[in-house]
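Design job #97: recover the sequence.
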């Protein structure tokens, strides 16, 4: 039987943007934390986190730069207790990955990411932060990160300027 090649190590970094985002330290990437505040959970985020609509959550937003140009607008939605325990409730860039912070603070290992991709118009915040024209599309990635028990840990809402990204998927048959 022929040996099957493991292509996971050859995946370009952008193939799995949520995984990359969870495993890198903000302080290692050019960009800045633009907003951190406790907010009521929007309907969609509440459903994904399995909390009541309007429940208090921490929203942490960051813009990442690529060659000096805004290239990602990242929004993390998480429980206020987890945010406090990890330092994700401050505007200071974290020096450890989000995965490491949350796993060490809660003892919950990340088990799965379910990502929903859409091409859409940017929100007002995305237009402002990414410097986009109102009619320029973004690739929106809305992802739920669950622990190994299947319980939601956080929601990541990622907006990528359409002109900078292209979606590629390759897999063995």
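Job complete. Output follows.
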């Amino acid at each position: 039987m022929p040996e099957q090649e493991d292509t996971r190590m050859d995946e370009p970094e952008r193939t799995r943007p949520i995984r990359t985002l969870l495993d890198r330290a903000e302080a290692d990437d050019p960009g800045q934390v633009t907003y951190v505040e406790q907010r009521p959970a929007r309907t969609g985020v509440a459903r994904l986190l399995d909390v009541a609509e309007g429940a208090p959550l921490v929203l942490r937003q960051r813009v990442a730069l690529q060659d000096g140009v805004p290239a990602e607008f990242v929004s993390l939605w998480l429980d206020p207790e987890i945010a406090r325990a990890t330092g994700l409730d401050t505007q200071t860039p974290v020096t450890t990955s989000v995965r490491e912070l949350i796993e060490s603070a809660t003892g919950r290992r990340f088990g799965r990411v379910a990502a929903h991709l859409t091409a859409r118009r940017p929100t007002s915040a995305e237009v402002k932060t990414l410097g986009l024209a109102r009619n320029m599309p973004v690739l929106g990635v809305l992802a739920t990160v669950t622990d190994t028990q299947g319980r939601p840990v956080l929601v990541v809402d990622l907006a990528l300027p359409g002109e900078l990204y292209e979606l590629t998927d390759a897999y063995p048959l």
